[in-house]
Fold these 2 entries.
Entry 1:
Amino acid sequence: MPSLKDFRRVLLKISGEGLMGSRDYGLDTTIVGRIAQDIKDVVQQGIQVCLVIGGGNIFRGVKGAAEGMDRTSADYMGMLATVMNALAVQNALEQVGVSTRVQSAIPMSAVCEPYIRRRAVRHMEKGRVVIFAAGTGNPFFTTDTAAALRAIEVNCDALLKATQVDGVYSADPKSDPQATRYEALSYTEVLTKDLRVMDASAIALARENRMPVVVFNMHGQGAFGQVMRGEGRYTIIT
Ligand code: UDP
């Protein structure tokens, strides 16, 4: 089992909902600011950090499709939503003095850099936080899959998935009091038990490339740094 304390480069996946706070839609700038501070603390520990941010707080392709839109167009809207979130997190990080670059899978030269793997790695080596926007750039995927893909591409030691609960449970702990938390799981267990922590394609990609996935709760102040020190509660999938 890999030790979290040994990880030198990690990808943090934050869902769009993770930026919403108690709102129904959009961004809570206080929450975004707190997350930026947490990321700064980890960068200051000498750990290279890159981010993938979802878009579910603004737009989700499946929802648009359910309401009658063409799925492909709806997914492109979802990907554009992730670019908005990436710019918000970039702004918050720069406000706390962290140097950043946004790289989009859909080139948008007036707004950010295009995704270029070697350049992303170089930025991280210089201590910059790289924010990967627009998911994989392809419809019919999710930002979880984008997170697994980018973590593998840029040689991260682990993919950290920030969620609303402190790990993976046997059932939804919010609705089932019998739900128990797993300390560790295998990729195959996640798939066969249908634990729905990430979509199946993301888990399959992580399994094929032996990318450890750490699931933890981003809500508490300093939660990201705590997990990187191997403290606090989380589930590790290997
Ligand atoms: N999306 C996509 N391709 C990708 C990543 C995202 O089409 O590679 C679209 C998809 O419509 C998705 C939306 O972007 O619903 C927002 O991403 P996601 O639902 O993964 O965000 P999260 O749930 O993490 O907030």
Entry 2:
Amino acid sequence: MREIDHTRVTSVVDEERLIADSLLVKRHLDRAVPPGVPSARERAAYRGAIMELLERRNAMIVAHYYVDADLQELAEETGGFVGDSLEMARFGRDCDADVLLVAGVRFMGETAKILSPDKTVLMPTLEATCSLDLACPIDEFSRFCDAHPEHTVVVYANTSAAVKARADWVVTSSIAVDLVDHLAAEGEKILWAPDRHLGAYIERVTGAEMLLWDAACIVHEEFKARGLRDLVRVYPEAAVLAHPESPAGVLELADFVGSTTQIIRAAREFPNRQFIVATDQGIFHKLQMEAPGKEFIVAPTAGNGAECRSCASCPWMGMNSLQQLHDSLETGGNEVHVDFQLGRQAMVPLQRMLDFAANRRP
Ligand code: 13P
Ligand code: SF4
């Protein structure tokens, strides 16, 4: 039911499924309460206490670019790490901390635990999920795979441990095109899940034939090609940088498409002084640090009004706060657990991803 029907005929069951998915996402969004803004004094107090706890517990913060700038700064100041999801996985596995504090969303914490079963993995909140993960439940996904046994199953890292365990390969956006290119050259047929925009983008770039699961990121899906075309007219000198979870019309207008780290690198290396950026606004903190003096403009979304809960800002990434990070470290609460057997199974495609990434061309 989830295969994208290229004739664009949507069955009643498809629609029911999509409505069920939206309700599920909405229910989770309703729980995604953004943390209150702490005063300067509170922030300083949390920072001091967190630094002490990190030292005492031999812990490190591994953060994604979309989380609050305070958390990103603290991660880097204390010898931790800020990066895209592939780099976070790698850093968590390679560092010699006893405790990893993953500031991001659930699948990132699970990946860290799978790759480092002996480390304690904590998160500021376990409520922070991802619309792609939510829209790819294991039972349905398994049926989809069973119906296409001749396909190689490639899943995006934004999935549960159970979905990863069912896959042949896991990829992140930074290596998805390279990996599918490689598999297609070996003559493999690909089943891809869950992000339909990223899947369709990989298909266009590689020419590989792929069966696509039908889910989307609620943040990137909001970027609109029409508004972007208008904005490009207002800033004709600006280069457009887009994350591949964005819809096809947006990606067609982009001068560069890549993972969050690749977007930051492009902003540094492109000669342009202005950039229109189609990804979560959390990345602007790092963009401004890495490319000082350049101007970054948020790509237009469907609704910039008070109603919009995911316009260029992931509500789940936004749930990570200094206070929760502190509390989790102090109490050992919000620990990520992955069933041991499931973790071992999920480790196989994750390890393939890491080996492939280590050997690919720069
Ligand atoms: P990156 O791997 O590019 O950081 O993407 C993760 C993500 O969730 C983007 O929405
Ligand atoms: Fe998931 Fe989108 Fe949030 Fe990334 S931005 S974690 S893909 S919901």
